[in-house]
């Protein structure tokens, strides 16, 4: 975890004197370093701190009081994902603007970002000017969403509200391929339980929970825990 106040030079202020304070939470150090370098070139934006995980992220937010939080969707070194952390941030600090960052062109992620009531969702591949624009827009109270996948996400949300028979193939997989224990795991994932919480509730070891989660991912054709939780939630297992 880093507090950037003693690292960056004082930026030149805009004509109105406003500086947008930003905190970055991402589990990849190279990403944090790259984004920090990019933001240094923006005179009205100051990166006041960065963190690799949820615990240190909440701590740096408390210490630096940022205007905008840039938050990675996937936090591989913690029990909770970026969406769960976003909800924690918005609940504790409702005045903070949260922008989700991801390297994956996934409508599932954007759908969950909408449900998490964050203030924006953009791909990491975008250039510096787009990122800076997103920060300024969020600071001004305007949400920004990646239009490449927004339509697919809205379609996903609409379908999730339709009758359960509209997704028979998914439910066929749930009914045929998954064991009862795996269905219980999916149910808890859809309710927002972390692996640690699932282990406590079911009295499973961490390795056992991970095994069931991995089996569910493999059977349902998703690549990570977040997609699995969204799939379970979208298909009535919550």
Write up what this structure looks like.
- This protein folds into two domains: 20-154, Rossmann fold (3-Layer(aba) Sandwich), CATH 3.40.50; 166-235, Arc Repressor Mutant, subunit A, CATH 1.10.10.10.
- Helix content is 51%, strand content 13%.
- The chain has helices at residues 29-39, 54-64, 82-92, 107-115, 128-139, 147-160, 168-176, 180-190, 195-202, 206-220, 225-234; strands at 2-3, 20-25, 45-51, 68-72, 97-102, 120-123, 144-145.
- The radius of gyration is 19 Å and the shape is globular.
- Residues 6-15 and 160-171 have low confidence and may be disordered.
- The modification 4-aspartylphosphate is found at residue 72.
- This is DNA-binding response regulator.
How is the largest sheet built, in terms of strand order?
Answer: 1-3-2-4-5-6-7
Cα distance spanning the termini: 34 Å
| Rg from alpha-carbon coordinates | 19 Å
Count of the domains:
2
What's the CATH architecture name of the largest domain?
A: 3-Layer(aba) Sandwich
Helix content: 40-55%
Encode the helix/strand succession as letters: EEHEHEHEHEHEHHHHHH
The tally of helices reads: 11
Low-confidence stretches: 6-15, 160-171
Q: Count the beta strands.
A: 7
Shape: globular
Might you state the CATH topology name of the largest domain? Rossmann fold
Relevant CATH superfamily of the largest domain: Response regulator
- Reading off the top of the CATH hierarchy, the class of the largest domain is best stated as Alpha Beta
Pfam family, one: Response_reg
Organism: Dehalococcoides mccartyi
Keywords: DNA-binding, Phosphoprotein
Protein name: DNA-binding response regulator
